[in-house]
């Protein structure tokens, strides 16, 4: 039992820069999802006058839906979870943690440090991109254990 726990702890969850060189589809899909997320974020905040955290929530969900569809159809060939409903639930749970990280970073950078909300979003997107990729790859899109 301890042996399995130790081996799980040794598996890198968060990706290295080198790993992204092997995942151009994920990077391309991530950039598309980011464009949708960021564009909607700015549009809701600027054009509709929403609070930036409300805009961030809606925009993040649109980006999440985009990256999920691209992940299952175009990016990852291996799947850890057989049932689609379970896979989506885990994908959404990882996304919820990513949304929480986004909100925290946005609040700290925008409200506490006075950075423009758009620059705060770029910083949060970079952090959450790395977190999401690592978690999705480890929990969802790898070969099932034998």
Tell me what the structure shows:
77% of the residues lie in helices and 0% in strands. The chain has 146 residues and is mainly α. The protein has helices at 2-10, 17-21, 24-46, 52-75, 84-112, 117-139. The chain is built from six helices and no strands. The model is unreliable at 1-11 (pLDDT under 50). The chain has one domain (21-139).
Short synopsis of the structure:
This protein is an all-alpha fold. It has helices at residues 2-10, 17-21, 24-46, 52-75, 84-112, 117-139. Helix 4 packs antiparallel against helix 5.
Characteristics of this structure?
single chain, 146 residues, mainly alpha, 6 helices, 77% helix
List the helices and strands and how they pair.
Blueprint: H1 2-10, H2 17-21, H3 24-46, H4 52-75, H5 84-112, H6 117-139
Radius of gyration: 16 Å
What is the overall number of helices?
6
Strand residue content? under 5%
* Secondary-structure element string: HHHHHH
**Low-confidence spans: pLDDT under 50, at least 5 residues?**
1-11
């Amino acid at each position: 039992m301890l042996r399995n726990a130790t081996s799980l702890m040794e598996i890198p969850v968060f990706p290295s820069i080198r790993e992204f060189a092997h995942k151009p589809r994920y990077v391309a899909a991530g950039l598309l999802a980011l464009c949708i997320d960021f564009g909607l974020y700015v549009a809701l905040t600027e054009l509709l006058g929403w609070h930036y955290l409300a805009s961030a929530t809606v925009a993040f969900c649109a980006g999440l839906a985009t990256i999920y569809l691209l992940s299952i159809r175009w990016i990852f060939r291996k799947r850890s979870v057989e049932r689609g409903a379970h896979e989506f639930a885990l994908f959404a749970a990882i996304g919820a943690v990513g949304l929480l990280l986004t909100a925290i970073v946005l609040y700290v950078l925008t409200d506490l440090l006075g950075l423009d909300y758009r620059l705060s979003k770029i910083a949060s997107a970079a952090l959450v991109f790395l977190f999401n990729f690592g978690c999705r790859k480890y929990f969802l899109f790898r070969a099932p254990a034998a």
